[in-house]
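Now for one record:
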Amino acid sequence: MRQVRHPDVAEQIKLDFRIMRAVGEFLDAIPGLGWLNLASSMEQFSHTIASQTRLDIEGTHLDLFNRNFRSLRASCGFPEAVLKSEAVLVESFEHGQLATRFIGPFARLRARRELERLEVASRPVRSARSAAPCSPRARAAPSTC
């Protein structure tokens, strides 16, 4: 697999973050919103996103991932970085199966249980008073029984 960073994407991201940082600083200046510390959050977020545009860093992370999980190499494969540069990353191709093949049955079971929980929760709860059998006199007035 190969990844190629589109031209000017780094500059576009820098512009986007300058705008977001300015909005964060504006909102931080509004009384009562300073506790959000949006400008600082935008700064941290921008570093995280900017590092992902550097494909050489992503390749280094892939190398680290392979080192950390080398004991599993016999039972499952992970792509390896074949070529790394700031704008291009070429990875080996690994045959495999989609994780959804294994996760799908559990997700459907969880969804079914959640649906059952919601159905039980949406049923009207009968109070002890309404659960008691109605007297003949109360049956005559259906609104009270």
Observations:
- The first helix runs from residue 9 to 29.
- The chain is about 55% helix and 10% strand.
